[in-house]
Amino acid sequence: MKHRIDEAGVWNNNHIIEIVNLFKVYRGGVDVKALDNINLVIEEGEFLAIVGPSGSGKSTLLNMIGLLDTPTSGKILLKGIDITQISADERARLRNRELGFVFQYHHLLPEFTALENVMMPMLIAGVKKEEARATALQFLEDVGLGDRINSRPNQLSGGQNQRVAVARALANHPSVVIGDELTGNLDTKTSDLIYDLLRKLNKKINQTFILVTHDTELAEKTDRILRIVDGKLVCEMRREGDRFVSTEVCQTAEAE
Ligand SMILES: Nc1ncnc2c1ncn2[C@@H]1O[C@H](COP(=O)(O)OP(=O)(O)OP(=O)(O)O)[C@@H](O)[C@H]1O
Ligand SMILES: [Mg+2]
User: Is 21:37 a contact under the CB 8 Å cutoff?
Assistant: First the structure.
């Protein structure tokens, strides 16, 4: 295997995320094994979808990658850094600088306008106010909300809030954008608009996208589809031209 970290401790391959033997068990009346030995490498610049039935562990996996929750065991390397082993400060820094998260339920700050919500991560990262404002305006235009920048979340529809959340996730130019049902509340036309925006950024700045989705059409526009069932990665398909080809993971999982 290629070394991830060279002797000087520098990340030196294109594995933006590497997940090794990842487990998550929720303890309660009954234990729920939400993630059951996930192993996965995601390369920089990948545009991939994670699909699977409700309750299969998709959001749990995103929350681990997005530094919002910690696994029961296993490792997650983000640019070679094991994010399961770092301090709370470092986690907060990486979450702000490297990751853009669009949640299943948008998590916008209710007392702030769309513009302020999108500016927030940039201000936290130390971007000057005027620059943050200009960038936020541009992204809000890009998601089709240029005329609603001063509205607060309770004055916007579910789909409009979803789009504010997309603009917020993109505004800081994070290395990895994670979307949990990022187009879940959107009509086909708006969903296409958002897809085009993400794909443009993916091509232009080699941004990595990990999208959990129930939308088969969106999944089939990505380059790689991972299927999770009962916390296990059961199948992986990769784009070859305009079709998808199953990789060996599917055969192995079926044979078990
Ligand atoms: N905080 C928690 N405490 C206990 N169990 C949890 C918790 N969060 C998730 N689970 C359980 O873990 C499993 C995976 O949940 P998860 O939210 O990851 O599913 P999902 O694939 O995102 O589903 P959906 O498509 O419905 O969003 C489910 O059985 C769920 O009930
Ligand atoms: Mg979910």
Answer: yes
Domain 45-68+87-255 belongs to what architecture? 3-Layer(aba) Sandwich (3.40)
Nearest residue CA, atom 29 of ligand 1? 55
The per-residue pLDDT for range 82-138, each reduced to its tens digit, is 999 999 999 999 999 999 999 877 789 999 999 999 999 999 999 999 999 999 999
| Distinct helix (H) and strand (E) counts, the chain | 8, 11
Element (H, E) at 33: strand 32-43
Ligand 2 centroid to 215 CA: how many Å? 13
> Which atom in ligand 1 lies closest to the alpha carbon of residue 28?
4
Q: Which ligand is nearest to the CA of 54?
A: 1
CA-58 nearest atom, ligand 1: 21
Specify the pTM: 0.92
Half-sphere exposure of 43 (CA within 13 A, CB side): 6
Tens of pLDDT, residue by residue over 205-223, are 999 999 999 999 999 999 9
